[in-house]
User: Which sequence fits this backbone?
């Protein structure tokens, strides 16, 4: 059954980056979408219509012609996008450089409602749609990070049950992992290692930084959580990494983590820059200063530092 339209064309323009003329031309000439109409004959587009327009746009960026693809099913359009010569550009491009705050807040609200309802499908669809509408980095900064904070806060104060937290974080973990795979390019350079140190099981900080680095052109090797220093050093040597990115969430200094930081500082090659971030990293400030390890205050500062570092390689 076709979804009932609820978005005027002005909203569709903002969400897709397509002009009003293009949307109407695709509709009239190629029957690409079929919006519903109000009693006053105003077009109203559904979320499904918006998704289809975005897929058509990316398929065209990948080298196809609208007349050849307008009637194709979504799965076929995705195949064209994934195999196209400008896939990385099309997928990584922020369609709205400055999306409206209200649109981002609405997406965040939809995601949180899905968490409460144990609705993994809606949560996954909402995150995917937001990444297409707003761009991958924007959706991480404005939706994923706030969502994780809300989930954590509500779980700690008892208002959110363990089942909700586990279900939601599983979906978010898969979503971020998919983004990382989509952003991986054969021409990416230089290499970076991302992980969490030994005894740190919370991996979202490291995974988010891995996605951000991949979006900026780095060849990211994501190792996962709870990785001993020896394995991090070995992997950095194996791929000739220029950066190692670690995240710590657990508060309170852990002797094993402190020891591993000292090992990393000692045994990583001199050309490797070691980044440490996350709330728990503040408990190791004295070690970071002593070893010249770079502390990440926020994702933008991290990306700026990566850009400078990459320009020097």
Assistant:
């Amino acid at each position: 059954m076709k979804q009932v339209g609820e978005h005027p064309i002005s909203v569709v323009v903002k969400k897709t980056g397509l002009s009003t003329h293009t949307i109407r031309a695709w509709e009239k000439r190629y029957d690409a979408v079929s919006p519903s109409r109000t009693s006053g004959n105003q077009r109203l587009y559904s979320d499904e219509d918006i998704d289809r327009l975005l897929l058509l746009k990316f398929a065209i960026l990948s080298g196809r012609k609208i007349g050849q693809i307008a009637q194709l099913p979504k799965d076929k359009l995705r195949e064209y996008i994934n195999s196209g010569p400008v896939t990385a550009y099309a997928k990584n491009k922020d369609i709205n450089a400055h999306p409206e705050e209200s649109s981002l807040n609405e997406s965040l609200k939809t995601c949180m409602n899905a968490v409460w309802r144990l609705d993994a499908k809606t949560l996954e669809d909402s995150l995917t749609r937001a990444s297409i509408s707003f761009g991958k980095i924007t959706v991480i900064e404005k939706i994923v990070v706030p969502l994780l904070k809300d989930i954590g806060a509500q779980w700690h104060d008892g208002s959110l049950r363990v089942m909700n937290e586990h279900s939601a974080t599983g979906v978010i973990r898969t979503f971020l992992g998919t983004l990382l795979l989509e952003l991986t390019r054969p021409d990416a350079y230089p290499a970076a290692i991302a992980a969490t140190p030994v005894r740190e099981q919370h991996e979202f900080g490291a995974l988010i930084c891995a996605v951000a680095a991949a979006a900026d052109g780095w060849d990211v090797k994501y190792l996962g959580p709870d990785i001993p220093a020896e394995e991090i050093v070995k992997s950095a040597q194996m791929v000739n990494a220029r950066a190692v990115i670690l995240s710590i969430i657990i508060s309170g200094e852990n002797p094993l983590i402190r020891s591993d930081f000292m090992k990393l500082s000692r045994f990583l090659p001199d050309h490797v820059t070691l980044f440490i971030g996350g709330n728990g990293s503040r408990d190791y400030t004295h070690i970071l200063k002593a070893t010249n390890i770079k502390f990440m205050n926020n994702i933008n500062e991290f990306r700026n530092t990566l850009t400078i570092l990459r320009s020097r390689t």
In short: The first strand starts at residue 36 and ends at 37. The CA atoms of residues 192 and 243 lie 5 Å apart.
